[in-house]
Amino acid sequence: MSVGDLDHCEVALGTWGYGPFDSDYAQDLLEDLAKADDIVDRLREVMSRVADAPGPVDSIAGDDALVAAALTAVRSGGMVVDPDTEEDLIDLMFLCPEDLRSLAARTFDRLLNPVENKWYDLWTLSNGIAQVTAELKPYRQALSDP
């Protein structure tokens, strides 16, 4: 099944793949981060909305937090991305403190937990959660490596 065949319009709209940077939401957040006064503070803010949320995970907050967590994994030195994605990230250089890595790991863990999670539900409805989980595994693993 290709992303073009997704049967749930909220997931398919503006999405061209299963990876964390494969959507219009991702591109919008990357542009927002490039304009931020403090990228690390903005990443913390975005990921905290999911990792530290007391209630359900919203699908758009989930999309944004996913991008932030994946960018943190890439910039922590533990994840290599394809050249096209790296080009999209070129303006987003920052030192990655350990607390940000930990927050990113918690963000991935929360996103991949189906309990009270609209983001997860939408990918499940589209039959894409297995592919998304496979795409995200190396990013999550990169945050676990020393």
Span between termini: 36 Å
Succession of helices and strands: HHHHHHHH
Mean pLDDT: 87
Number of helices: 8
Give the strand tally: 0
Largest sheet: none
The oligomeric status of these chains comes to single chain
Radius of gyration: 14 Å
Helicity, as a percent range: 55-70%
Uncertain residue ranges: 1-11
| Broad shape | globular
Q: What proportion of the residues form beta strands (DSSP E)? A: under 5%
Which structural class matches the secondary elements? mainly alpha
Task: Describe what this molecule looks like in 3D.
With 146 residues, the protein is mainly α. It contains eight helices and no strands. Helix 4 (59-75) crosses helix 7 (118-125). The longest helix has 17 residues, at 59-75. The protein starts with 8 loop residues before the first helix and ends with a helix.
Please supply descriptive tags for the structure shown above:
disordered N terminus, globular, mainly alpha, 146 residues
Protein topology:
Elements: H1 9-12, H2 24-35, H3 39-51, H4 59-75, H5 83-89, H6 98-111, H7 118-125, H8 129-144
Helix pairs in contact: 2-4, 3-4, 3-6, 4-6, 4-7, 4-8, 6-8
What's a quick, concise take on this entry?
The protein is an all-alpha fold and 146 residues long.
